[in-house]
Amino acid sequence: MNTYILAIDQGTTSTRAIIFDHEMHIVGIAQRELMNYYPHPGWVEQNANDIWASCVGVIGEVMAKCNIADEQIAAIGITNQRETSLIWDKESGQPIHFAIVWQSRQSNTYIEDWKQKGKASWIQEKTGLILDPYFSASKIRYILDHVEGAQKRAEEGKLLFGTIDTWLVWKLTQGECHISDVSNASRTMLMNLKTLDYDEELLQFFHIPKCILPKIQDSSAYYAMATGIFKHPVPITSIIGDQQAALFGQTCFESGDVKNTYGTGCFLLMNTKDKIIQSSNGLLTSVGWRIQDEVNYVLEGSVFVAGAAIQWLRDGLKMIETSAETSSRAKETKSDGIYVVPAFTGLGTPYWCAEAKGAMFGLTRGTTQNQIIRATLESLAYQTNDVVMAMQKDSGISIHQLYVDGGASRNEFLMQFQADLLNVDVIRAMHSETTALGAALLAGLGIGYWKDKAEIKQLIAHEKNFHPSMDANKRSVAINGWKKAIHAVLAFHQDEV
Description:
CATH architecture of the domain at 4-243: 2-Layer Sandwich
CATH topology of the domain at 4-243: Nucleotidyltransferase, domain 5
Helix content: 25-40%
Oligomer: single chain
Radius of gyration: 22 Å
Distance between the termini: 66 Å
Largest sheet: 7 strands, mixed
Mean pLDDT: 91
């Protein structure tokens, strides 16, 4: 009887279940959209019960579609939106508040307070993270403070906290298993990067009871049997945050390997193996994964607006009907010194200016739609270049190639321009589902479905290699123009303040 790996990919806008065979072919996919709630500007929440229902739905759908029985699922791997935080009642299993999504800024008052207390560098040294509402600690604090009696119930051990991986495992095991893995735990702002356990001083400072926190596990191991929705129990053998999963799915196993996911934003991760590199250039330090006590750390940079800028061309400016047409239209024109800085939700790495606004530079009476389209695509490559330069400075490692995935990685013009700008090969994944792929690979390792990373490396093919072809002088002029545009955006913000 053939056996398969089931990957659950729980994202911000949808939940997907994907079944892979032993050769890493996708046998079937099911997907359900998720509702996000915006109670106030800058706040983003989700109903955790809806997330669980979508998970149940896609698992049932994909198995029915592929005519696969429970007994044929060798293992389950889970990958998830990181940092999104929820707290639920241990007895009833009901969330006490909507999940606060990673994008949400509603806990920012705590961040400002902790900055005022001079705790930013102390927290970064322990956790590798920059003080920002992005991470779980301030979200936990918000829920405990805004739900009546929650702090007392937490201290009495009546509540449980989890990121989405923890919630799904708890539900799949019918409340038997309250765990997370090192990659997700490293994004809570509660885990010490050196000990890979919760930091007692941080918990005391944040006033968060340790008893509500999940046990931290390896990213690939046997955890428990999923019994809740299966007649025949299925082992859960991997948990990993989505961006780390994509790094693993791209087989970035060596020190200095870098991948960029071009989604709504861009997430660049560099594997630094067993080295914890504290950034002085606006990057985050996290755990990539831990397998049988072998730990891989990562440097991470975030570009807030990538694919969202292409959506803006379509929905806001009405310049395009589909994202796919941007590549051919960009190729039809020259950029002519036009720059778009799509700082619609501020600037991320390496600038970290939340209040920055977007801008266009170099417009003339002769500027065309195609030039604006081209400059918008180029902005994704420029922002990526900024993060790569920061990574090289922090790590002391020269990057020789960039592995890419995500929706906008299918854009031929953008990928070629990215290779030209970085002056390295840009290697596009064969699999568009690298996040789910990473979770599946780790799940398979957890049960010996694949022997080791060397076997995995043999299985994973890449679809296309873009070689740089821009001359050095032209590259230098282009990057200097971008730097001037960024400095102007930052100066405009300073003038506003």
